[in-house]
Structure formats: C-alpha cells, structure tokens
From TrEMBL:
Gene3D superfamilies: 3.40.630.30. This is N-acetyltransferase domain-containing protein. It comes from the Bacteria. Pfam families: Rv0428c_C.
C-alpha cells in the first residue's frame, strides 16, 4: 500500500488503485470519510461511502478537491444563463426558449424575462407576452439580456431602454477556487435555510417583500446550501453566503459580511466551503455576478482566479420607466 495515505486527512479527495478479487485493478476516486490502520472509507459524488481494506490498495494519491474540465469560458453565455436560471426563481413560465419570471417584485432577476434564445414568436408578439405577464403579476415589465445578443439589439430597436446597472458574470474552475485547502472550521454549511441565516440576509439587503416569496427564491431548486460564520459572541451571524448547484456549475450569491467583521477573510472562507460542498455534488465550475462599477469586488474575485465570462443588463419599455 502506498505510504502516502499515512498523511491523508478526512475530507480530502483521493484516487485509490485497488486490487480486485480476479487480480485486476480498478481506480476509486472520492473524498475520504475515514482512514484506519485496516481500511479506508471513501465516497464519491455519485456513489455512497464504501470501505476498502488497506491490503487491497496498491497505490493512493491525493487529487484536486473537485473534478477538472475545459476552460469555463468555452461555455456559451446563453448556456450559462440557463444554468443560472434555477438558482434565483419563484414563479416562471416558458415563452419559447425565453423564461418569464415573477417574484413579488423582489429583485430584478426574479421579476424579469430571461430573454435568451428564441422566444418562438416574432419579437413584437414576444414583447406583448412579456408585458402582459408582468401586468398579471403586478410587476414592471423588464427583460434580462446578454449584452450584445440578438435579444439585446432587437429590444433596443423596439425602443426598450436600459434600467439598473450592467452586471458582469465571472467564472473559474472549482479547483482554482479551492486550491489545496480544506473547509474553514469557522464556516457552517447547511442545506436548510434557518431563521438566523434569513435574518442576516434581511440585514444585508433590507426589503419589504413578502417573506414567503423571498424564502421561495432563496430555497430555489435544490441542491442549495447556506454558509454562515458566527460572531465572537457565538450568537449573532456575522457573515453569510449562498450556493446553488445546477449541473456542473456552482453559483455563489448573497455573499455578505457585517461591516465590523470585514477584512478577516470570511467571504473567501464561505465561498471555498460552499465550493467543497458543491464538489461533492458534481460541480466543476463556479460563477458569480457583480455590478460592473464594483471594481473593488471584481479585483478581489480576480485574485481568487475568477475571469470575465459575459455581461448582462436589464431593458424596459419606455412606458414602464418613471
């Protein structure tokens, strides 16, 4: 047996070459659950834990904390936006390849049409559907468009105008974000949205939206996880972040730290802890969204390995503008 396992830590991702009863060998890759003098228990993203006798292990090698893959910038912008879609959603309805969304007015993303792909009808007719859907749900008509896309140009040609700020979508491989580190013990990650996390989210983003609608958006379509760090008193939550996995993508959202607890690395610690959680669910890439004018945040994310993927913005018909 390879002596490398003598330095192994629970939670690390390893590949074990194991001897089979017929004399052949097979590789088992996953995260270490336990390591004893007699056996190793390992689990993967697709298989439950399995215990392997150490006398069967021929070679053992630590591997990156998440599976690799091609450069995430090779993913088309419309494909990534469709992956992002399920991470922040309340009510929705298909319009061809577009998605009409309504969420009680809480956030532009949950209350706009994702105008990506072909709406299946001529653009003027699609616009009528978007406006009618918004009116039926008591929200302002808005379209989220990829900057420079056909939908962007087409709606502008019909007189639609920009609202809000342009948003940059940044991406990186999950292995780049995680590096060689292990989850920070200060961070708690749960797949259950509790009242403490929800209260901290309310402090980070004060609003008067229907609490049940906000909860529906935050819980989304699983798998979703909520990271938090307690303040020194052990009672009040000092920092939060939310993660959502869609296919091979982890989305990081709602990243916030109380002002008096900033510059302590809590945001990075939460992002990486959510990354470890997502890797066990098959994620290989990670994305986040940041306002175009927030250069400080963009520079901080660049230091973690994030690069620009695409930009999106919101457009609204002139009659909907104040």
């Amino acid at each position: 047996m390879d002596i490398a396992l003598g330095k192994a830590r629970v939670g690390e991702r390893w590949v074990l070459r194991c001897r089979q009863p017929d004399g052949s060998a097979t590789d088992v890759t996953g995260w270490l659950v336990s390591v004893t003098s007699d056996a190793v228990t390992i689990e993967s993203a697709s298989q439950p834990p399995r215990t392997i006798g150490r006398d069967r292990i021929i070679v053992a090698k630590r591997v990156p904390a998440a599976a690799g893959g091609p450069d995430p910038r090779r993913t088309p912008a419309d494909e990534l936006e469709r992956a992002v879609l399920t991470g922040w959603l309340a009510d929705s309805e298909a319009l061809g390849e577009w998605t009409l969304r309504a969420g009680g007015g809480f956030s532009a993303r949950a209350n706009s049409v994702l105008a990506v792909g072909d709406p299946g009808v001529p653009l003027p007719q699609a616009v009528e559907r978007v406006i009618g859907y918004a009116q039926a749900h008591g929200i302002a008509p808005q379209a989220q468009v990829i900057v420079g896309s056909a939908a962007d140009h087409g709606l502008v040609a019909l007189g639609w105008l920009p609202v809000h700020v342009t948003t940059e979508v940044l991406v990186c491989r999950l292995t780049t974000l995680l590096g060689d580190g292990m989850p920070d013990p200060r961070v708690e990650v749960s797949e259950e949205l509790d009242d403490g996390w929800l209260a901290a989210f309310g402090r980070s983003r004060p609003h008067d939206a229907d609490p049940e609608v906000v909860r529906r958006i935050l819980t989304g379509q699983p798998p979703t996880a909520y990271a938090s760090v307690l303040a020194e008193d052990g009672e009040r939550i000092a920092a939060i972040a939310r993660g959502h996995v869609s296919g091979s993508w982890l989305g990081l959202m709602a990243i916030w730290t109380e002002p008096e607890h900033r510059r302590r690395g809590l945001a990075t610690a939460m992002m990486r802890s959510l990354g470890h959680w997502a890797a066990r669910r098959g994620a290989r890439y990670v994305y986040l969204q940041v306002a175009q004018q927030n250069l400080t945040a963009q520079q901080a994310y660049a230091r973690l390995g994030f690069v620009h993927h695409h930009s999106y913005r919101y457009l609204a018909p002139p009659t909907a503008l104040p």
